[in-house]
Amino acid sequence: MTQRYHDLMFTPAVLTRQEQNGSRAAYARDAPAPGPDRLTGAEIRFIMARDSFYMATNGADGWPHLQHRGGPKGFVRVIDESTLAFADFRGNRQFITLGNLDTDDRASLFFVDYPARARLKLLCHVRAVSLEGEPELAEALALPGYRAHPERAFLMRVEAFDWNCSQHITPRFTEDEIIHLGA
């Protein structure tokens, strides 16, 4: 767990629960993080290899909303060590994530590699951007051969990340992965 993730997630209520349950000492830290985390090669490779992730946002009334996002492997692009982006494809037309981001730009992203039983959590500030006025961004996020039509882009500025334990992740395999395992 990075120091920044620790600083953002371990609220006073969380610290109290850790004390009550005997895990506080294991997570004790000396000093706050100097600023947002920067992605390393390990995080970048992991994100680029995924074909889906989960994105949680909060509504104006405080209720969390979790949304699955998918596309071909690598559809989430790493712009630099602190910025991710992906094309937002037409979906169910509810616009819950988009509306939530209008009132609170914070989001939690959850990437899972089921066969390897690995997961990465990221805390981000997210901004929706029209692709019409951003031809360079549209080209950077283009997915030749993928039939979905992007309606906008989401730019995500990473605040913190955490590689979480693999306990209780059931390995799951795509059809292509099963074929590859049998080869």
UniProtKB/TrEMBL annotation:
Cross-referenced Gene3D superfamilies: Electron Transport, Fmn-binding Protein, Chain A (2.30.110.10)
Top-rank taxon: Bacteria
Signal peptide: none
Span of domain Pyridoxamine 5'-phosphate oxidase N-terminal: 46-133
Record's protein name: Pyridoxamine 5'-phosphate oxidase N-terminal domain-containing protein
Species for this entry: Vannielia litorea
Highest classification ranks of the organism: Bacteria, Pseudomonadati, Pseudomonadota, Alphaproteobacteria, Rhodobacterales
